[in-house]
Amino acid sequence: MASKNMMKNTIALILAINLVFFGFTVAQPPPPPQAPVCPRDIQACVNVLRTSVILNAQTVSRCCTLVAGLNASVASVCLCNAVRISLLNILTITLRLNQVLGICRITPPAGFTCA
After folding, report:
1. Assessment of whether the complete model's pTM goes beyond 0.85
2. Which sign does the torsion angle of CA 40, 78, 96, 54 carry?
3. Which of 37, 53, 61, 66 is the most buried (most CB within 10 A)?
4. Contact status, residue 87 vs residue 49, Cβ threshold 8 Å
5. For residue 55, what are the CA distances in angstroms to 19, 22, 67, 85, 97?
6. What residue stretches are annotated with the Bifunctional inhibitor/plant lipid transfer protein/seed storage helical domain (predicted)?
């Protein structure tokens, strides 16, 4: 009889411990959302912008694909960085960025400048 009571107590203790640990795992809050970042393949976009004299939908399609799922402000910053890396002249940067944003159909936020 003692072994039956001990077995019942052991099973009850194991079930209680499992319920406690299950409660801890369910009670954890979800992780915070991560801030959107530029894709790592943006270097391919830099290479396209550096080698292309004339920008059109075919030459810029790789860049547009990379930033397609991003917010307009994040995509504008990513493309700004890509254009800024590939060119040194400030006037050319602004013109090229506006051209790339137009081809990708991205409307930058009001007051956005590529500095």
Report:
1. no
2. positive
3. 66
4. yes
5. 62, 57, 17, 16, 10
6. 38-114
